[in-house]
Amino acid sequence: MTLPASPLLDPAVLARVKDLRLVARTLVDGAVTGLHRQPRAGIGVELEQFRAYQQGDDPRRIDWRAHARSDRLVVRESPVERDVTVRLVVDATASMAHADEGPAGGGGRNGEAPLTKLGYARMLAAALAFLALRQGDAVALHLVGAPAVDLPPLRRRRALERMLFHLEGMEAGGRWPSWQQLGPRLLRPRRREVVIVISDLWEAEAEIASALAALRALRHEVVLLHLMGRDELEFGWRGDVLFEDLETGAVVAGDAGALRAAYLKRLAGWLDGWERRAAELAVTYRRVPLDRPLELVLRDVLARRRRTR
Amino acid sequence: MSFGLASPLWLVGLSALLLPLVLHLLARGRGRRVRVGSVRFLTAAPPRRPSRLQLQRPLLLALRCLLLALVVLALTAPRLSRASAAAAPPVWVLVEPGIGASELPARAGTAIAAGAELRSLAPGLPRRAAGGGGATPEGGGELAALPGGTWSLLREAAASAPAGTRLVVVSRGRLAALRGERPALSNPVDWLSVPPPGDRGTAMTNRWPVRAAATPAGRTLVVGESDASVTTFRREPLAAEARTARVPPGDAFAADDSLPLPTAAALRVAVLTAPARAAEARYVRAALAVAAEAAGVAIVVTPATGSGDAVALPAVAGTTERPALAFWLSDAPPPAQLLAAVREGTVLVTEASGSEESCAGGFSAAVNAVPVMLHRCAAAGTRGRAAAVPTWRSDRGRVVLAAESLGRGRWLRFASRFHPAWSDLVLSGAFPEWLRDLLRETAGASAGAERSGSDQRGDGGQGAPARAVARGGSATAPPTPSRAPEQLAWLLLFPLLVAERWLAVRR
């Protein structure tokens, strides 16, 4: 089942909402609620609620202190500790500043800046963090770029505020570091984690591919969300264009019409290579154009996780 | 249907069309800058072909050129006219007999050179050779002798000339030739004045009477003189027994049909003032002097003062010494001697007396005049006089001036005083105007008989016949150019601008 694209959930429209928490809540409540599972009540350290004793309940779960006070049999319930950590790795390198010029990017309507890959990644990461925290998962956040941000796995309610703070302030800059630099920030060998990487996969020397391989070697479940501009996918430019590389600053000038065929051919080979590599590493790979409604991406990720539980 | 431009100089603005052309050529060489995540798939692309002389986005260029052309077109104010440009109206130059070819003004010469028909301003409007006309010395007296004078000849010209013919009249501009009612013609008339032969080079071109006035020293006539560069006024004495005034070099104005010539006998005006009202008397006397000048009436003001409230009345009664107009400025009521004079024909003006009270509001001393403010009034005011007719009322309904007939005379009661602390009347132009009308009435002259000085001018241009009022879309009416093209150009600008913006920003 696919959700119809609602104008309210158009990424370009959502990008104009300054409150990232509201964006995340809107996405999760509007598109995902009903699909995900509620936390399972059971035995644990943390108290979630009391309820009256029912026949068949384990007598060990009766709270005797409460019984002494109220003279009623009350069972103590705690959320189940599933010990799952969702690690969000967001690419904040310079190339993420790319924005679609056409309607997909909002086209700068009403004087607003068009939606960049970074803006899309920001909303997606916020929604994923909101969703994971609501399900009781611990969430870690890593912003890869300059400056880098690393938030350890957090489960508390205030964890979302911290993440939203960093997501709202992040800017595109720098390049993807090597695994030697990035690995120590991500490694937590004792646990099995779900790592969601949001990136445009523009790399200089296979740094991202190395990182993905290393994460898989640690037996983490990896979801790779590949952000691509509609312009990049279809090469919709016309006339004489100066193409400037956001990361290297290199400039290529040419007639867009003449460059198009060769570009599309090379791009297709590159995308095929990533899909093949992801399949080899058993990484869940999803290509996400910037005009794709965010709730569809969320549903996709959630469905994938339910299958793997 | 013809097309014209009201401001053709703006066509220079069409050179601005080069601007978008240059911009497009420059833009073609630069290319648009696009920031992408990576150019790795473009590095191996073939290099850009050398620039060809081919404009990018020709539709946008055309639209921008059209926009500029429309702006220029709108600025040139194009007009559509139904009249054919080739059908220029014919011109008749009508020259008064006695004016030689050498005397013709340059404008008339230009018209003749352009093909205008030259005719004599004489019965039958005979054609006249371009170089002739001066051989027969005919004075302006002939024109003046004709019944209707110049006006009848102009009517004849309008009737016999083709429709729409422009009439250029060259005349000495003597008033004697402009008797009768000024006709309303459908033809446009240009009036060119030629100075009398004797005055050329030395005397003023135009002379006209401005105003006749009488002073105790005698009667005078103010005469205006002007030529092309200067206008002056001077005062000339009038003989005491003269019934007409004469403006050199020969135009005479009878007292009954042109200027109201003052009579030799001056009106007597008595300003009878109590010592406490000396200030009011000053305002009254000053305004009387101005009013007498304006009314063309000679007055002799007889001031009278007394001690306390008693005012000596030196000879206000009696037929020969009775003043025509008397002002009683005192707290005391007018004495019986004065009232007797009123019954014999004197106009008596009194102001407030007795206790006073504060009163506010304004009143108009004349129709369409600026309201005059009241500050204080007599407590009794003008109430209680059944025979009094309210003449001025304040905007709050209070009677400010009431007129009461007494015998052959009148008694005008002013509810305030002729003092700025009581009312603004003495500070307003309405005061001497009111007194002027009073003097005129008193002198027996018609208030509407006076004509303003400018109406008396003998200048031909001023005396030219009035243009006919539009007569139901007559064929001779000048064509009214339509502004539709200009308005259309302005209206088209906005949608074209929107289209240009849309084309410019779309990819």
What does this structure look like?
The complex is a heterodimer of chains A (309) and B (507). Chain A is of the alpha/beta class and 309 residues long. Chain A is 39% helix and 21% strand. Chain A has helices at residues 11-14, 20-32, 64-70, 117-134, 158-169, 179-186, 207-217, 230-234, 256-281, 294-308, and strands at residues 41-42, 49-52, 74-79, 85-92, 138-145, 149-154, 193-199, 221-228, 240-245, 251-255, 284-289. In chain A, helix 2 (20-32) crosses helix 4. The model of chain A is unreliable at 1-8 and 34-40 (pLDDT under 50). Chain B has 507 residues and is α/β, with parallel strands linked by helices. The model of chain B is unreliable at 134-141 and 445-479 (pLDDT under 50). Chains A and B meet through strand 9, strand 10 and helix 9 of A and strand 2 of B. Strand 9 (240-245) of chain A pairs parallel with strand 2 of chain B, so a sheet runs across the interface.
Layout of helices and strands:
The complex is a heterodimer of chains A (309) and B (507).
Chain A: H1 11-14, H2 20-32, E1 41-42, E2 49-52, H3 64-70, E3 74-79, E4 85-92, H4 117-134, E5 138-145, E6 149-154, H5 158-169, H6 179-186, E7 193-199, H7 207-217, E8 221-228, H8 230-234, E9 240-245, E10 251-255, H9 256-281, E11 284-289, H10 294-308
Parallel strand pairs in A: 4-5, 4-7, 7-8, 8-11
Antiparallel strand pairs in A: 1-3, 2-3, 5-6, 9-10
Helix pairs in contact in A: 2-4, 2-10, 4-5
Chain B: E1 2-5, H1 18-30, E2 32-36, H2 58-75, E3 78-81, E4 91-95, H3 106-113, E5 117-120, H4 141-145, H5 149-160, E6 166-171, E7 184-185, E8 189-193, E9 206-215, E10 218-226, E11 231-238, E12 244-247, E13 251-254, E14 267-273, H6 278-295, E15 299-305, E16 325-329, H7 336-343, E17 347-350, E18 356-358, E19 362-363, E20 372-373, E21 376-378, E22 389-393, E23 399-406, E24 409-414, H8 430-443, E25 466-467, H9 484-505
Parallel strand pairs in B: 4-5, 4-6, 6-8, 7-25, 14-15, 14-16, 16-17, 17-24
Antiparallel strand pairs in B: 1-3, 9-10, 10-11, 12-13, 18-21, 19-20, 22-23, 23-24
Helix pairs in contact in B: 2-9, 6-8
